[in-house]
Write a structure and sequence with these properties.
alpha+beta, 3 helices, 2 domains, single chain, Immunoglobulin-like, 162 residues, 3-stranded antiparallel sheet, 4-stranded antiparallel sheet
């Protein structure tokens, strides 16, 4: 992480710890390539993560979301077979994906050796664009403005405090 710290010294940025943590997380996991995966965007707010998990059963895979991190773990249980050649990897794995704060995991399914995890980006109501009609005041905005106009600074009764 020397490159990141040299390029962007933390001492020059105040309040950006979360951004540095995300960059460090990304750099730390940049070389994680197993199992192979695809990230597909299906429309404006739908995503699909596909992981190649041939050789793993549903019981051998664990999917968890915690602190905006989606973690997929796989641990193959040996069936005691003797292999002459093993070309399908069943090594233990842990794959992590950082999720945006408004991304929800809808579910997962395994079909034909592909684990598919459905994600949905949901914009909260307060962040969605809304049309403001001229001449109409919303109750919340009106009350807030009235409150600002009636609050005064103790030293100067004619000033409003913000």
């Amino acid at each position: 992480m020397t490159g990141l710290h040299t390029l962007f010294p933390r001492s020059s940025f105040v309040g950006f710890d979360h951004l540095f943590n995300e960059l460090e997380f990304t750099a730390k996991h940049a070389q994680d390539h197993y199992p192979p995966h695809n990230i597909i965007k299906n429309g404006e707010s739908e995503y699909l993560i596909e992981l190649a998990v041939a050789g793993f059963s549903e019981d051998e895979i664990n999917i968890e979301v915690k602190d905006r991190t989606l973690t997929v773990k796989g641990e193959h249980v040996s069936k005691g077979r003797e292999f002459i050649h093993r070309g399908i990897s069943t090594k233990k794995f842990k794959r992590t994906f950082r999720l945006s704060e408004h991304v929800n995991v809808n579910g997962a399914d395994i079909q034909d050796g592909i684990l598919a995890i459905e994600l949905h980006y949901i914009i909260p109501e307060q962040l969605r664009p809304r049309k403001i009609q001229i001449g109409k005041h919303e109750e919340l905005t009106h009350d807030y403005n009235s409150q600002l106009l009636t609050e005064t600074d103790g030293n100067h009764p004619s000033r409003t405090t913000l």
